[in-house]
Specification:
Length: 132
């Protein structure tokens, strides 16, 4: 059963501008160490890589039924990639508590995420599904 759906779109130039304007303060506020290290490995693609993750965090918060700053932070949501490059979500702190509340069972729901970018925009789509 689907428990939540979320989507978000981000203008890549906005993220690039925030990186340039606020530098480490912006990066440390929005992204985990894992996400920053992953993006730095893709140096030429840094703004689009981070824009996809930013959109992903927003989409996850929407799928959880709460927005960012309504109890969870951007760093409570981490977007990782498996060995094949497929993105997946790791939740911490308040975001994990919201997921546990949504579950209403002992089994945590599965969070699916898809990320994309094209020239000017980054997009994320998230589905939260119960497995029970």
């Amino acid at each position: 059963m689907i428990l939540g759906v979320g989507t978000d779109i981000v203008k890549i130039a906005r993220i690039a501008s925030d990186i340039e304007k606020f530098s480490d303060r912006f990066l440390q506020h929005c992204f985990t160490d894992y996400e920053l290290n992953y993006a730095k490995q893709k140096k030429a693609l840094l703004p689009s890589t981070l824009a996809k993750r930013f959109a992903g965090k927003e989409a996850v918060s929407k799928a959880l039924g709460v927005g960012i700053a309504k109890g969870i932070t951007l760093k409570d949501i981490e977007i990782r990639n498996d060995e094949n490059g497929m993105p997946y979500v790791v939740l911490y702190n308040e975001a994990l508590k919201f997921l546990e509340k949504k579950a209403k069972s002992d089994t945590l729901p599965k969070v699916y995420i898809s990320l994309a970018d094209e020239e000017d925009y980054a997009l994320a789509y998230v589905i939260i599904e119960t497995l029970a």
